[in-house]
Batch of 2 targets.
Target 1
Amino acid sequence: MSADDPTMSTDDKTVDDQVTAGVLQVARQARAAAQVLAPASREVKDRALWAMADALVAATEAITVANAADLAAGRQAGLSPGLIDRLELTDQRVADSAEALRALAGLDDPVGQVVRGQTLPNGLLVRQTRVPLGVVGMIYEARPNVTVDAVGLALKSGNACVLRGGSAAGRTNQAILQVLRDTLVRQGLPADLVQSVDQWGRSGAVALMRARGLVDVVIPRGGAALIATVVQQATVPVIETGVGNVHIYVDAAADPDMARPILMNAKTQRVGVCNAAETLLVHAGAAPAFLPQALLELAQAGVRLHGDERTAVWAPPGVTIWPATDQDWATEYLALELAVRVVDSLDQAVDHIRRWGSGHTEAIVTNDLAAAQRFTAQVDAAAVMVNASTRFTDGGQLGLGAEIGISTQKLHSRGPMGLTELTTTKWIVIGAGHVRP
Amino acid sequence: MSADDPTMSTDDKTVDDQVTAGVLQVARQARAAAQVLAPASREVKDRALWAMADALVAATEAITVANAADLAAGRQAGLSPGLIDRLELTDQRVADSAEALRALAGLDDPVGQVVRGQTLPNGLLVRQTRVPLGVVGMIYEARPNVTVDAVGLALKSGNACVLRGGSAAGRTNQAILQVLRDTLVRQGLPADLVQSVDQWGRSGAVALMRARGLVDVVIPRGGAALIATVVQQATVPVIETGVGNVHIYVDAAADPDMARPILMNAKTQRVGVCNAAETLLVHAGAAPAFLPQALLELAQAGVRLHGDERTAVWAPPGVTIWPATDQDWATEYLALELAVRVVDSLDQAVDHIRRWGSGHTEAIVTNDLAAAQRFTAQVDAAAVMVNASTRFTDGGQLGLGAEIGISTQKLHSRGPMGLTELTTTKWIVIGAGHVRP
């Protein structure tokens, strides 16, 4: 197919043709900018990251003023406290975003790394080298810090990015992108490495996810509904992120005093994140020693408990267990709520996870090596934890440096996605007149 | 999402609900079978591959008889000689397919390989391990040898496969699958590791590419139309393969006596394959010494030539140059036809390739190191050749062992896809009660 053929993405009549034309123009500009950045040295890219960090800090007031306007509009529109919190940019949060860019500058550049290479028996010199993807589309909800992270990760990995950042953060994102684009120009790089399609609203997002041949990947980051929409409508390759219906299985051979802190950390250290626990599975043999105290601590922490009948048996006085339904097994609460089920075996726990899990993170607490090995082998998820909190599924925590999201799909990238996951490879074959016999 | 929720793929009313139900049942059986195979040792898988090879050879007569019926029907339906040739299975070709399975048994098993691992400062032991994808859907055209290759590659990499093999090869594929399924059972493995949805025709293929949560990847293998259909209609992740609008650029600093054999090999050694050359770009400075003889040899080899005006100038007497149009620059001939254009610079060649290339394979012939470096850096393709035939873009030729296809997309896998490309990874994190501060 031709990389520049706009007809590829206008076959869908539900997308307004003018919006499509506008988005395709943005994508074409991004593609041209990406071709300029691709050969740039790490030094050039790191210098730009440092300059962006300084520029963001210098522009803190302009950014927070724009953010205050978004916040006021958001409160008026009745956004939930959680959403308002994600939307808010304090001076400190701007400084944190700038620091994140400086941290990126300190990471290795994946571009140019040789993945594998050899001289073949016939003398052909073959090497597979990392190269940027090209143009990365990000579709996310109103979280201005994601804007800065996405731009930084894309730049460091040699890619252009096209952002759809959520209307509620429109003023804030515009202020941030203005600062970042101006900095790129001052650094002698194309401003179009960083663009937004927010002015076209939802149909702009749809056009972006259908810009085949111009956009190399679309990464949706947000709730299950957003991700499902992108997966259904996109014709550009998609990397799904983030939906985490996360389980903790407390095995018969678990140490209750190890299991409780892990459970409390996974459920309450930070709610509303995809690696927080949503369902607790307890082996019947572990229930007597573990459940009463665990349920009490959860209740004291303000966690609303949904349990099966065998769980209710172990509820201490004053702790309410709401009857759990299939809906509870299926739900990613992202709140101080937990589903609890007593199972008869590790196999039953694995079956429950296969039935209800989202393939994000699953954990077992046990001192039985065989049980740990069976659980890690049989559970099919991006990350499987043994005697550790599910909250460790995070690019920073796992040593990747930054992350652009956590993939819950199996293709290209699974689990936390760092810089390497924003690259592809190119086979380079050097011969001396070689032909195939 | 729940991995077993059939509603995920029945949202499309164009697919007959009964067909969908049937295909989802097949996919569910495949998933269950894959869970049995996933932990199998290399020894178990290799033994099954050897047994399959022997069983195929033993069943040669039954298979060729079924194939003869498909061939007769195909000829009656007026299939092109090329398609008939791909469809035909001689005793020798059955033996070759069996030998391919034995070769697979000799390759390393990617499953269980540790991609990266470390002990983090906090003492968490982290490793990223290769695991099978799960269920691989293959949608291809009537080529029975692909059936055997796909089954072998899926089995060796620990995956179940669901095949849609093209109606024209229906009887042949059925005979082959019967042999392979019987062998699996004799080896103590589930027959449902290998299934077909051919009985449901095209709507079965559509249901397969929409079985989200049950099928982990769909790999279309065939012409541009087939691949475009899958990309448009699939909701399961897709790996695009094969479309190759392949260019050879003869640089000003090329040795004509090296360039001609490379060109002839790339165009005529085997036509109808995706790594065959379709367009020749010649630097104006190289044209006088290179083009007349090259055009003559091409014409003598029976290649129909479509050229621009500057190419026609160099045509020797008796060699016809048909006027090239944009259609020619865009076409993957897969036949003894070639588009030829004279360009003024390497940059113009790169621009032409960016405009018309399909990102499969591009080649430069030059003795100028700087030119080779600029071409390999600026051309965005799965494989870039310097002074070598484009026909080397092949899993076997590049040292991957077998290949299931050649990816022309950037996600997950780019270029020839071998066993490793049929796996994903799983993070396994071992702690001792670790929680996040």
Target 2
Amino acid sequence: MRSKGHRGARPRCTRTIASLLLSVNSFHNVRLDLNSLFAGLVSCHVSLPHFKQSGFRNVSVGGFFLSQASSSSRHGRVCASTVLAAQQRSNSTSSKISVDFDQSTGVAVMHMKSPPVNSLSLDFLTEFCISLEKLEMDKSCRGLIITSSLPKVFSAGLDILEMYGKSPESCGEFWKAVQEMWLKLYSSNMVTVAAINGSSPAGGCLMSLTCDYRIMVDNPRYSIGLNETQLGIVAPFWFKDTMANTVGHRVTEMALALGMLYSPAEALNIGLVDQIVPEDKLMSTAEQTMAKWLAIPAHARQLTKSMMRKPTVDRLTSKREADVQNFVSFITKDAIQNSLRVYLEMLKRKKA
Amino acid sequence: MRSKGHRGARPRCTRTIASLLLSVNSFHNVRLDLNSLFAGLVSCHVSLPHFKQSGFRNVSVGGFFLSQASSSSRHGRVCASTVLAAQQRSNSTSSKISVDFDQSTGVAVMHMKSPPVNSLSLDFLTEFCISLEKLEMDKSCRGLIITSSLPKVFSAGLDILEMYGKSPESCGEFWKAVQEMWLKLYSSNMVTVAAINGSSPAGGCLMSLTCDYRIMVDNPRYSIGLNETQLGIVAPFWFKDTMANTVGHRVTEMALALGMLYSPAEALNIGLVDQIVPEDKLMSTAEQTMAKWLAIPAHARQLTKSMMRKPTVDRLTSKREADVQNFVSFITKDAIQNSLRVYLEMLKRKKA
Amino acid sequence: MRSKGHRGARPRCTRTIASLLLSVNSFHNVRLDLNSLFAGLVSCHVSLPHFKQSGFRNVSVGGFFLSQASSSSRHGRVCASTVLAAQQRSNSTSSKISVDFDQSTGVAVMHMKSPPVNSLSLDFLTEFCISLEKLEMDKSCRGLIITSSLPKVFSAGLDILEMYGKSPESCGEFWKAVQEMWLKLYSSNMVTVAAINGSSPAGGCLMSLTCDYRIMVDNPRYSIGLNETQLGIVAPFWFKDTMANTVGHRVTEMALALGMLYSPAEALNIGLVDQIVPEDKLMSTAEQTMAKWLAIPAHARQLTKSMMRKPTVDRLTSKREADVQNFVSFITKDAIQNSLRVYLEMLKRKKA
């Protein structure tokens, strides 16, 4: 599905994108709108002409990542809500996630390995949910550590190309998959630990926030936050709820209004992550944390987690269809699509 | 409407009142009730005999400010809910607020200048809401900085004389104006920054809390807080909600129960203000903050703000009439009115 | 009702139990389940053979305390919801609480003195609620300080023997008494200060959390927290609400999931207690705090307290019967009762 050339390009690309994500931090004093932001990002993407060869064009907009698959690569797509049906052929498309399960500890490590930046495309989300579902149903699996196999990025968040030039039906299908990932992760019966070994903006931050515990590599070049607003997009209420449950109402209000991206030290300070560690201590710390959580009687821990999170989960569950409609009507607005079109045309001109 | 003598008296009066407001901080270990508190305030007001000449008598009760206009000055009053009708003659009554609007930045600065302490009378609130509405409807105005033109006080809060000896109708009209100010400010589409250059108790604190960002002058003689309880009065639920959204449930519980007034450093520590700066850096810091907020795509920022605040706004909107009835029935209680009467008679005796 | 031998055993027993409670802190990295935890506790209880003589067997499970009264000592029990009826004979059973009321200050000090660890049995709760009701109805009593007369323990929490081998009716009656204590304390019109002079796990922590202010002795051997999960039991939603109102959602989520017990310094750091002091300064600090709170006009303070807490109180009130049913069906589960039975048999074998 992906050419060697594509994979080989990974390090260079993610480095460029990582510095881009971080540079958004310094945008605060500058007036920006969607167009100028898009324009500012072009330099990144024109350095990636080999993407065309691979049948994918991947471009990141701040925390978002745009990947446009060639039509030939799209036929395998499944709706995340039909996860079980899709499960039979998960092996054939399981290139975006790899799972190591240690029977002796009952702990699985899920490696996200969808270059260049683990963007949350429909394919990615579908495969993620299938893997998660499998582990959830395996009684011997009691803990899950989520981390990235890519250098410098945990996940760059939602794939914007899933939202551009698509039918309302496709946009809706994509959004249901995002909801599904959140619902599954936030109410998982497993102990979930995010081992954040790179930048984690937008949807990547959301994914981290759903876990029971967050450990981030203490590298000031990495950042984390729900920065949607910087891109002219609005984090939906359940992103907001998840963050407010973690860092409180006021910090969330400021963070979302300004689309803040935090360094690991800042994230620790506001409680967005629970611990920061040197890169080489990340996995051992995650395992120690997991052991501590697994020492608690499982049934009581699960009931407690449900008690804490059920009201938030129920809010989305009860408004799920309306939330899809909201998203679709927002993202298919002429103004939003126009901005995306202008950007993509600009991108094409630069590439030419 | 105001004599020269009145304005000239401003500095001396506010100095006395400022130290009074701050002295409430040291009341914690002392048993106090409304009467003794009122009695303790007389020394301030007897030094202001010239108020009589101006047709106004202004007296502050802790964070509250009592101003009783002569009947001749009352005919211009409008209900805040009929703001548009009143707008035509806003020039004739526009002495309490002045607005500087910079077309180049899109930022308006609203100076509160109602001596001696910017108490929130019905007149003040009406004019404030009219000014706010004008700016809100002006698409070129994107940001609002609220500050005081008076020395040492931002705003001393609600005007108690609007609550004494008034008909239930008048009390209700006043309370609707307070609600209106809060509703308009808390859900403003503009970026709002409070540049707090003096003490800001009770309603003054509420006004600050409605803004997107609060910067306070780092002068330990200034204080800020919802201190209603100290006066035997209860902050209504939407004051409480606004504070809890900012500093959390527990800090709010303690602060309201004890009627806490915080120094700027303490306020920063609990998150009641976002930043403290030297007096001469206040406006430049407010402008830099504003530029940072205005750099965010406006539509996304506004939707995000609405998402964060709408549940709180809706709570009042849905109970607005009941909240007015609550207030009117509380404030017109014989016990409360009696305390006010005793106090005012005492004041007259001292003046005689 | 209790023999001399029983009382004389108090110091030795509580010392053992106190260190036991604290040792749970170091359990985090160890896999534990109900049985191993129970087994680990046996060493404590076999050293207390004299309990048999007194007609009581008292055993503590972490934060819980199991006391099984001989049938002869049970006939005096009253349901907490029939407190008024029981009040007439409160003198005859008032051995578990003593109250010192100072008319000059209006402050009552309630000493919990039910050896060995002030476990919250039905008898204890009934007497506690009767004492509280009396003070609440006495207009001259405006403040209440709750403390322990026992060394090293404030209260070890709910009495597990009220939950083992009992009919659903008895379990339900017990749970109503726990609810009653919480409802009465959390919505008390008095100023309530917890003077925490020893470990305060589980229900002991809950009792502290209901107060207006918490002062804890700064002894690192004491601990406080809702550690139910460690025992395979789940803190009910109103325990959770009370904690979240105090320390926020995220800290509560972690604390409950892991069954965290905090040292006084840690508890201060997360806001679980408001102040820590040397042992010999506890009561004087409590009295100074009380004087500060009593200086606030009582009516305004009470209305403010009600405004802050009523939504939380109403949640239980509206679901009270369902909450009893939940508890009864959980605690009478074969799995839970089996664990308790295995433990108690093990205890008997060790004693033999």
